[in-house]
Amino acid sequence: MAIGAVISSRNFGSFTGSGKVCQTEKADRHQRGELGVCSLTYARGTIFKTRPPISREFCSYKFKHSCYPVGVLGGVKHHPLSNHLQCSENFHIINLKRRIQRRCDCLLFSDSSHRSWSKPLKLDKLGISDGQFQKCEYRQATTTRADYKPEHFDITEPLDPRNTSEASAEVVLVEGNVQKITSWWKQFPKRWVIVLLCFSAFLLCNMDRVNMSIAILPMSQEFNWNSATVGLIQSSFFWGYLLTQIIGGIWADKIGGKLVLGFGVVWWSVATVLTPLAAKVGLPFLLIMRAFMGIGEGVAMPAMNNILSKWVPVSERSRSLALVYSGMYLGSVIGLAFSPVLIHNFGWPSVFYSFGSLGSIWFALWLSKAHSSPQEDPELHIEEKKLILGESQSKEPVSVIPWKLILSKAPVWALIISHFCHNWGTFILLTWMPTYYNQVLKFNLTESGLFCVLPWLTMAVFANLGGWIADTLVSKGLSITAVRKIMQSIGFLGPAFFLTQLSYVRTPAMAVLCMACSQGSDAFSQSGLYSNHQDIGPRYAGVLLGLSNTAGVLAGVFGTAATGYILQRGSWDDVFKVAVALYIIGTLIWNLFATGEKILD
């Protein structure tokens, strides 16, 4: 734009007369709903000799009895005031100044190419038109005021807004290039919206899972359960969890992760709410309900892995997965922190009712915001779609699973065995940690829940730290294979070292510190084996995670149940020794056979 000016044309009629320009000033204007506002109120043949070109945004100055549309105008050569305006061929007019005591409405017109007036769309103060957000404009304008008073016009007479010869108006001509921006939530990358929704799903996943590890203490007292029965109840969750790992992966790879993950959250939320009723009916019903809950949570990880393999480019893979899995850890933090409080004030059933009901809120957001792939999202910006599809792997839907090919690859078996070794120690700490604090460290129920928070909080922090480190190493040129081996070696050897130290500590504080360090180093696995499914076979990411997590679930079933029997005949030192041995075995197999290269296409 050449210049910007504010023209205050007070009561000009046919524009015969004289006037002068005065008071030029700089002004910063922020326009929301008033895009393309022109207060040259009457454009019906008097002001302009010919109809000017019309730009995209249109507005009208709407009075009580009539509406006179006015456009973003160009070509003011025939305007009598043009002698006082040294402006270019095309300019934008914004910022309506009201001079007449009538209502002013800002409108957008839908047709940007036709010269006739199109259907107006009402804009409110926030720039919302029929529920749709309109882009804002930030401009810097140089304003020049010109008071124009024709000689023959008596300003003491009342103005008639329907008379085009009687008008007053004020316009702003804006200087500079137009830069349109949207609100921050519109600019936020959609792929990270998907990541955050998956993060919140995993947050609820572990909240609903770990509440039993706290509630089992008062429940066992009320129903007279021994350690073996407690171990059976804790492991019953994994019966259903085991069944849906591979099925969930196949389902997600074929029909998309959105439906599968949504189904899982609703299913396990309902099972969580029904858990107190099942416990009061009888032990068999409680075991069945916990298995049902496992069915819902079993599809979550394969479905999430399928979605992120389509939405997240390789350069952001580790940090996105680390953030999602840190949702599990923060879910454990919230569940372990709030469960004792709820139990103390409202009884143990309250934790199941309150946590389970949160799934309905998440499901409503998921239905409205999520899509299984970028191709299915009509609101995805073209730049982001190019970034995702340009960097990521093939996104064609899977129709047939090549089981023979998958199971013939050594890196797949390295992934399966390492997942088993990893989950043995992880699930023992997840399900038995409150009991360890209560029986060995002599913490009460509330203290057990609160001290259990620290290790999981440490995992949430270190998982994201490991994700950023891994992506940074990849961006620096280190091979994906080397990055995955480094991260997973930390995830195995770190917990092994700190669990061995528990036999030598003598204070509760040091025991909690060792637990926290063990879990914190374990979190580096999210940038190791948990990211490897998308590395070696992005099209079969759901199936691969279903396979390896099936082995991980078996470790949870056997490890959790075996811990109960070990404690009846041995000690906690024996429990930790088994976990350490499996960590070392997993380290050797992972470093010998794992790879970060794509082996399945």
Describe the oligomeric state of these chains in a short phrase.
Answer: single chain
What CATH first level of the domain at 187-389 would be assigned?
A: Mainly Alpha
- Count the strands? 12
CATH architecture annotation of the domain at 187-389: Up-down Bundle
Uncertain segments are 1-159, 161-181
Based on secondary structure, the structural category is mainly alpha
* First-residue to last-residue Cα separation: 54 Å
CATH superfamily of the domain at 187-389: MFS general substrate transporter like domains
CATH topology group of the domain at 187-389: Growth Hormone, Chain: A
Helix % is 55-70%
Radius of gyration: 33 Å
Spatial strand arrangement across the major sheet: 1-11-5
Mean pLDDT: 74
Give the overall shape, derived from the CA principal axes.
globular
Number of alpha- plus pi-helical segments: 17
How would a crystallographer describe the biggest sheet? 3 strands, antiparallel
Q: Report strand %.
A: 5-15%
Helix and strand sequence: EEEEEEEEEEEEHHHHHHHHHHHHHHHHH
Describe this structure in words.
- The chain is mainly alpha-helical and 601 residues long.
- Among the domains are: 187-389, Growth Hormone, Chain: A (Up-down Bundle), CATH 1.20.1250; 405-600, Growth Hormone, Chain: A (Up-down Bundle).
- The chain has 17 helices and twelve strands.
- The chain has helices spanning 184-187, 190-223, 227-255, 257-281, 283-298, 300-311, 317-346, 349-369, 382-391, 403-407, 410-439, 445-475, 480-500, 508-522, 529-536, 541-569, 572-593; strands at residues 6-12, 19-31, 54-62, 67-73, 93-94, 106-109, 120-123, 128-129, 132-133, 136-148, 167-173, 180-181.
- A three-stranded antiparallel β-sheet has the order 1-11-5, with no helix packed on it.
- Helix 11 packs antiparallel against helix 12 and helix 11 (410-439) packs parallel to helix 16 (541-569).
- It is globular, with a radius of gyration of 33 Å.
- It starts with 5 loop residues before the first strand and ends in an 8-residue tail after the last helix.
- Mean pLDDT is 74; it is low at 1-159 and 161-181.
- GO terms for molecular function: phosphate transmembrane transporter activity.
- It comes from Nelumbo nucifera.
- InterPro entries: MFS, MFS_dom, MFS_Na/Anion_cotransporter, MFS_trans_sf, SLC17A9-like.
